[in-house]
Amino acid sequence: MKYETDYTMEDIMSLASKVYTAKDVSAPISSGSFHHDGMIVVPCSMKTLAGIRMGYTEDLIVRAADVTLKERRKLLLVTRETPLSDIHLENMLFLSRMGAYIFPPVPAFYTRPQTVDDIIEQSSGRILDCFGIDTNSFPRWEGIKNTKTHKNKI
Protein backbone atom coordinates (compact mmCIF):
# COMPACT_ATOMS: atom_id res chain seq x y z
CA MET A 1 0.00 0.00 0.00
CA LYS A 2 2.73 2.44 0.91
CA TYR A 3 4.48 1.89 -2.43
CA GLU A 4 1.39 1.93 -4.64
CA THR A 5 -0.96 4.53 -3.12
CA ASP A 6 -0.99 7.76 -1.17
CA TYR A 7 -3.13 6.16 1.56
CA THR A 8 -1.80 5.83 5.08
CA MET A 9 -2.55 2.93 7.37
CA GLU A 10 -4.77 5.30 9.35
CA ASP A 11 -6.75 6.14 6.19
CA ILE A 12 -7.46 2.48 5.56
CA MET A 13 -8.18 1.61 9.18
CA SER A 14 -10.70 4.46 9.39
CA LEU A 15 -12.80 2.69 6.72
CA ALA A 16 -13.09 -0.53 8.74
CA SER A 17 -15.47 -1.37 11.55
CA LYS A 18 -12.95 -3.85 13.00
CA VAL A 19 -9.17 -4.04 12.59
CA TYR A 20 -6.87 -6.95 13.45
CA THR A 21 -3.14 -7.38 13.00
CA ALA A 22 -1.82 -10.09 10.71
CA LYS A 23 -0.20 -11.84 13.69
CA ASP A 24 -3.49 -12.03 15.65
CA VAL A 25 -4.44 -15.59 14.69
CA SER A 26 -6.85 -15.69 17.63
CA ALA A 27 -9.04 -12.89 16.17
CA PRO A 28 -12.74 -13.76 15.79
CA ILE A 29 -12.40 -14.12 12.00
CA SER A 30 -10.01 -17.05 12.53
CA SER A 31 -12.83 -19.23 13.84
CA GLY A 32 -15.48 -21.17 11.96
CA SER A 33 -18.04 -19.90 14.47
CA PHE A 34 -17.55 -16.35 13.13
CA HIS A 35 -20.46 -15.74 10.74
CA HIS A 36 -19.69 -14.21 7.36
CA ASP A 37 -20.72 -14.63 3.74
CA GLY A 38 -17.20 -15.01 2.40
CA MET A 39 -13.73 -13.57 2.16
CA ILE A 40 -11.83 -11.63 -0.48
CA VAL A 41 -8.02 -11.50 -0.37
CA VAL A 42 -6.81 -8.39 -2.24
CA PRO A 43 -4.05 -8.55 -3.26
CA CYS A 44 -3.28 -12.24 -2.92
CA SER A 45 0.46 -12.77 -3.23
CA MET A 46 1.81 -16.09 -4.43
CA LYS A 47 3.14 -16.63 -0.88
CA THR A 48 -0.37 -16.18 0.55
CA LEU A 49 -1.83 -18.39 -2.20
CA ALA A 50 0.66 -21.15 -1.36
CA GLY A 51 -0.01 -20.76 2.36
CA ILE A 52 -3.76 -21.10 1.80
CA ARG A 53 -3.30 -24.15 -0.41
CA MET A 54 -1.06 -25.90 2.10
CA GLY A 55 -3.01 -24.84 5.20
CA TYR A 56 0.10 -23.12 6.54
CA THR A 57 -1.73 -20.70 8.78
CA GLU A 58 1.16 -18.57 10.01
CA ASP A 59 -0.86 -15.33 9.83
CA LEU A 60 -4.46 -14.16 10.16
CA ILE A 61 -5.09 -13.80 6.42
CA VAL A 62 -4.13 -17.41 5.69
CA ARG A 63 -5.87 -18.68 8.83
CA ALA A 64 -9.13 -16.88 7.99
CA ALA A 65 -8.96 -18.13 4.38
CA ASP A 66 -8.30 -21.67 5.64
CA VAL A 67 -11.37 -21.46 7.88
CA THR A 68 -13.43 -19.98 5.03
CA LEU A 69 -12.61 -23.03 2.89
CA LYS A 70 -13.20 -25.48 5.72
CA GLU A 71 -16.61 -23.96 6.39
CA ARG A 72 -17.41 -24.11 2.64
CA ARG A 73 -17.85 -20.35 2.39
CA LYS A 74 -17.00 -18.23 -0.62
CA LEU A 75 -13.29 -17.38 -0.97
CA LEU A 76 -12.11 -15.04 -3.71
CA LEU A 77 -8.37 -14.60 -4.29
CA VAL A 78 -7.27 -11.58 -6.32
CA THR A 79 -3.91 -12.82 -7.56
CA ARG A 80 -1.59 -10.38 -9.26
CA GLU A 81 1.73 -11.99 -10.03
CA THR A 82 2.99 -12.29 -13.61
CA PRO A 83 4.27 -14.25 -15.30
CA LEU A 84 2.89 -17.34 -13.60
CA SER A 85 5.04 -20.38 -12.92
CA ASP A 86 3.77 -23.97 -12.96
CA ILE A 87 3.74 -23.84 -9.14
CA HIS A 88 1.49 -20.74 -9.16
CA LEU A 89 -0.86 -22.32 -11.69
CA GLU A 90 -1.01 -25.62 -9.80
CA ASN A 91 -1.78 -23.78 -6.55
CA MET A 92 -4.55 -21.81 -8.28
CA LEU A 93 -6.02 -24.94 -9.88
CA PHE A 94 -5.95 -26.82 -6.58
CA LEU A 95 -7.74 -24.00 -4.75
CA SER A 96 -10.22 -23.53 -7.60
CA ARG A 97 -11.11 -27.20 -7.35
CA MET A 98 -11.70 -26.67 -3.63
CA GLY A 99 -14.22 -23.97 -4.49
CA ALA A 100 -12.11 -20.82 -4.28
CA TYR A 101 -12.54 -18.19 -6.96
CA ILE A 102 -9.31 -17.12 -8.63
CA PHE A 103 -9.64 -13.55 -9.85
CA PRO A 104 -6.62 -11.96 -11.53
CA PRO A 105 -7.50 -8.26 -11.84
CA VAL A 106 -7.29 -8.16 -15.63
CA PRO A 107 -8.69 -4.91 -17.01
CA ALA A 108 -11.57 -5.08 -19.47
CA PHE A 109 -10.91 -2.65 -22.27
CA TYR A 110 -14.39 -2.93 -23.79
CA THR A 111 -15.38 -0.41 -21.12
CA ARG A 112 -13.02 2.07 -22.81
CA PRO A 113 -11.38 3.20 -19.57
CA GLN A 114 -10.10 6.77 -19.58
CA THR A 115 -8.26 6.65 -16.25
CA VAL A 116 -6.65 4.17 -13.89
CA ASP A 117 -9.61 4.80 -11.57
CA ASP A 118 -11.93 3.53 -14.34
CA ILE A 119 -9.93 0.29 -14.50
CA ILE A 120 -9.95 -0.07 -10.71
CA GLU A 121 -13.70 0.64 -10.59
CA GLN A 122 -14.42 -2.08 -13.15
CA SER A 123 -12.21 -4.67 -11.43
CA SER A 124 -13.62 -3.81 -8.00
CA GLY A 125 -17.16 -3.98 -9.33
CA ARG A 126 -16.57 -7.39 -10.89
CA ILE A 127 -15.05 -8.67 -7.65
CA LEU A 128 -18.10 -7.52 -5.71
CA ASP A 129 -20.38 -9.06 -8.38
CA CYS A 130 -19.06 -12.45 -7.22
CA PHE A 131 -20.72 -11.74 -3.87
CA GLY A 132 -23.98 -10.48 -5.36
CA ILE A 133 -23.12 -6.84 -4.65
CA ASP A 134 -23.90 -4.60 -7.62
CA THR A 135 -22.09 -1.27 -7.36
CA ASN A 136 -23.62 -0.01 -10.62
CA SER A 137 -20.39 1.94 -11.03
CA PHE A 138 -18.96 0.64 -14.30
CA PRO A 139 -20.25 -0.07 -17.82
CA ARG A 140 -21.24 -3.67 -18.51
CA TRP A 141 -20.85 -5.56 -21.76
CA GLU A 142 -23.94 -5.09 -23.90
CA GLY A 143 -22.72 -6.66 -27.12
CA ILE A 144 -21.26 -5.01 -30.19
CA LYS A 145 -23.24 -1.87 -30.97
CA ASN A 146 -22.16 -1.04 -34.51
CA THR A 147 -21.88 -4.19 -36.60
CA LYS A 148 -20.75 -2.27 -39.70
CA THR A 149 -17.69 -0.92 -37.91
CA HIS A 150 -16.78 -4.26 -36.35
CA LYS A 151 -17.92 -6.59 -39.14
CA ASN A 152 -14.49 -7.17 -40.67
CA LYS A 153 -12.69 -7.24 -37.31
CA ILE A 154 -14.55 -10.21 -35.84
From TrEMBL:
<dbReference type="GO" id="GO:0004659">
    <property type="term" value="F:prenyltransferase activity"/>
</dbReference>
<dbReference type="Pfam" id="PF02441">
    <property type="entry name" value="Flavoprotein"/>
</dbReference>
<keyword id="KW-0285">Flavoprotein</keyword>
<keyword id="KW-0288">FMN</keyword>
<keyword id="KW-0808">Transferase</keyword>
<dbReference type="GO" id="GO:0003729">
    <property type="term" value="F:mRNA binding"/>
</dbReference>
<feature type="domain" description="Flavoprotein">
    <location>
        <begin position="29"/>
        <end position="122"/>
    </location>
</feature>
<dbReference type="GO" id="GO:0046281">
    <property type="term" value="P:cinnamic acid catabolic process"/>
</dbReference>
<dbReference type="GO" id="GO:0016831">
    <property type="term" value="F:carboxy-lyase activity"/>
</dbReference>
<keyword id="KW-0637">Prenyltransferase</keyword>
<dbReference type="GO" id="GO:0034599">
    <property type="term" value="P:cellular response to oxidative stress"/>
</dbReference>
<protein>
    <submittedName>
        <fullName>Phenylacrylic acid decarboxylase 1, mitochondrial</fullName>
    </submittedName>
</protein>
<dbReference type="GO" id="GO:0005739">
    <property type="term" value="C:mitochondrion"/>
</dbReference>
<dbReference type="InterPro" id="IPR003382">
    <property type="entry name" value="Flavoprotein"/>
</dbReference>
<dbReference type="InterPro" id="IPR004507">
    <property type="entry name" value="UbiX-like"/>
</dbReference>
<dbReference type="InterPro" id="IPR036551">
    <property type="entry name" value="Flavin_trans-like"/>
</dbReference>
